[in-house]
Amino acid sequence: MNRATKQKIRRLWRCRLLMSVGALTVAGCTLLQVQNVLKYRSTYPAWSLELAQELEILSNEGSSNEEKGQALLEIQIIARQHQLPITETIIQESLRLSELWEGGMDLDRAMARVLYLNQELEEMPDQDQAQDLAQELMQVMARYRALVQEARYLDLSDSDRNWGVDSVLNLTSAHEKDSHQKLKLAQRVTLAQADDLAQALVRVINQDQELNRALDLVNKLDLELDLELDWSISQESIKALEVELHETYGLTLLRSDELQRVLDHEPDRARVFLLSAVLLGILLFGLASFLIILTRTRVSYSIPMTAHLVAFLPEAWVGELGALQRRMKKQNASVWEIRRRLLEEFVTLLWVFYIQVQLENLWLPSGDREIDE
Amino acid sequence: MSPSRKKDSNDKSSKPVRLSAIDEDLLTVLLGRELYGLEILDQLNLDRPITLKFGSLYPALNRLEKKGLVTWHWGDEVDESGGARRKYYKVTGLGARALRDIQQYRAALAQRAAGGTSAWGGA
User: Fold this and answer.
1) Cβ of A361: how many Cβ atoms within 10 Å?
2) Distance (Å) from the C-alpha of residue A271 to the closest C-alpha of chain B?
3) Touching check for B58 and chain A: CB below 8 Å?
4) Closest residue to A357, CB basis, from B36, B59, B83
5) Cys-Cys crosslink for A68: which of A54, A231, A276, B2, Cβ 3.0 to 4.6 Å?
């Protein structure tokens, strides 16, 4: 084996050794960085923190009704998005009142409406008079029907008395004309009267119905206030939310001081986590580069595996190991036995060359200390 | 080519050479012939109670070479080990003299021991 080949092989293995050491070092740093990333990763998802914050708003007595209403809506959205049915049910019960808010009928305005309606009713015929109106309307309609029948009778009489004296006929016609006109007028007046009565009756009925509705609403609001269900959420409900959150996602519902502490440290944690993740990415990239370089370094031409040992041992010793291998093959030794023997000799010779011989050479006459000469 | 140690050989010719048992065995095996490592082991391990391996052979050869008692040259074979050559060792004049000296000492020692035994009335 010539010097150039030996140098090439030794250079190759020196490069591989350096790459291996580099890869191992980077791998070690990567493992440490993975620990760091796991340490600083978020243990609470953003939505759970938001849920906790909204619950704090609900529990806080100083929060306004608008804030509490908004908090309830946010919690309902979160519960829907993350499949928390118990939470959703509890919030929906509390949100019943929000429909009243959306309808704009708060207690004060409901009471004002009741008073107004009451005042209007006082100026109008009361409930009992609705019946009188209805009766009067019926009488007017009866009179109208009678007038119509009378008009029909006059028409018939006129056709029956066609054969009379002219003067008598003339006087009769004039009288009949006058009666028709009076009948028509009476009919018109009666109809107008009936129309007015009907409208008045309808107004009374409508006002009465609206007043009843407003009174019902006031009673309902008052009842709700008496039961104190307002916007607050009970401790039992919060406990139910905690249990559901823990059983579904394994998360703990943060409250008060603990929540505040987590929220205060969240920006720092996120920043450190991001930096750790970036560094981990760089290390992984470095590790991959080392491994790629390691696999791509090879000799341009193929040489036996034994010859690669020249990178670590003198050529003569490698030659002896080759001779030993051939002898064992001729003796029909098993592959594993040959490998075991060669490995044993290789490890021993590493110790001998790099430690024992170097130590002994300290006390021996000096000579060339290169690996082969 | 084997390294020349002419500078050291003059100094070594006058000084006694310290030889271990393995060194002496190696010189005995190599006397009058050229052998490579595996052949040396084959010769040494015939009827040897404790088998020698490469780990014992090479430090001994290194000591003998550094002391100028053996010399070597590269073999010409290009075999399956990827062209790794073997070194063929032989004893130098200094080595032969050192071996002769130690052998003479052992012979005299044995003779004295035998004569001493008879003087004292036998074993």
Assistant:
1) 16
2) 57
3) yes
4) B59
5) A231
Q: What is the pLDDT of residue B40?
A: 95
Q: Which of A1, A360, A367 sits opposite B84 (nearest CB)?
A: A1
Measured between CA atoms, the residue of chain B closest to residue A316 is B86
Is the CB of residue B53 less than 8 Å away from at least one CB of chain A?
yes
Query: Does B80 sit within 8 Å of A349, measured CB to CB?
Result: no
pTM for the structure as a whole: 0.50
CB-nearest to A361 from B54, B66, B79 is B66
- Whether A88 has a pLDDT exceeding 60, the answer reads yes
